[in-house]
Design goal:
Elements: E1 9-23, E2 26-43, H1 45-78
C-alpha cells in the first residue's frame, strides 16, 4: 500500500497492523493489533511538485509538445 500526501507540511500518520486469523479452516477477521505507532511525516513543496510531475507527465508532455509543433508548423508555412 502506498500513501500519498495531499498537502505539504507536517502530518501525523497512525499506523496499525492487524492480523487475519484462520479458525477451523476459515478466515476470520479479528482485530488483534500487532503494531501500533504514530509517525511524524514532513512533506516538502519539492516532494509535492515531484509527485505531481511523476503522476501527470503524459499530460504535461502533451501540453508542451502540441504548442511547439504548432509553432514549427507556422514557421515552416511562413518560410
Amino acid at each position: 500500500m502506498e500513501i500519498h500526501p495531499k498537502e505539504e507540511g507536517r502530518h501525523k500518520l497512525h499506523l496499525t497492523l492487524s492480523v487475519l486469523l484462520e479458525i477451523d479452516g476459515r478466515d476470520t477477521p479479528r482485530a488483534i493489533r500487532t503494531f501500533d505507532k504514530t509517525i511524524d511525516v514532513n512533506v516538502t513543496v519539492e516532494q509535492k511538485i515531484s509527485h505531481f510531475f511523476k503522476n501527470n507527465w503524459q499530460w504535461l508532455w502533451t501540453a508542451m509538445l502540441v504548442p511547439f509543433v504548432g509553432w514549427l508548423w507556422r514557421r515552416k508555412k511562413s518560410s
